[in-house]
Amino acid sequence: MFGFGIPELIVLVVIFAPLILWLIALVDIIKSEFNGNNKIVWLIIVLLVPLLGAILYLLIGRKQKVDPKLPSGQIVNGKKFCHSCGEELNAMAEICPKCGVRLQAAKSSGTNPVLVVLVVVIVGFGAIATMGILAAIAIPQFASYRVKAYNSAAIADLKNAKVSVETYYADHNNQYPESLDTLRIQMDKDVEIQYEKTGNDNYIIITTHKKGDKVYSASSGSSEIKWKYKKDQDGQFISL
Fold it and tell me: pLDDT tens-digit profile of 181-210?
């Protein structure tokens, strides 16, 4: 009716099975009773790392539940007695040795130290995983911003060189300089520049930053700046 094939059904199972498993574990924790603070601890684990926490709970945590239907025995002056026959029992006894009545082990007010270690490990793992994800996102972005900054430096130096060449042209009877050595151009130390005079009224300037990924060019008679990728040596310059 829905037009699902085997591959689609497999994808749906892969997507929704972890969610269903997580919900089962979460509901079971909420409606169950535990010793001490174990209920809160398991809730934290399952909420922090849903899939792994749910699996750990179903394998380990469910065994730590307390059955509220079973009597826990009577506590008198710190001692535990069978509620049926009055026999004194060990604090953790589950069956009265005298009458055979099944009892619930006495509830502990503390938290299972194994769970505490488990929470610390999972929280640490989650923190490391989160930092790894953030680093995987941030590092490429940072590298991209750096490359853009290098390219911007090459563009800025190209514009400065062009202004200096055009100023020289206006001050020297419409003659462009033979080289840039005669001009005082302040440039970034990592920007490489090429200048070629192709005639009395023509020139071309090319700049690139050592750590940039683009090459830029400008020529006489136009204010347009063109570019191409540095790795594309045989490519054509296109307008910026």
Answer: 888 888 888 999 999 988 778 899 999 999
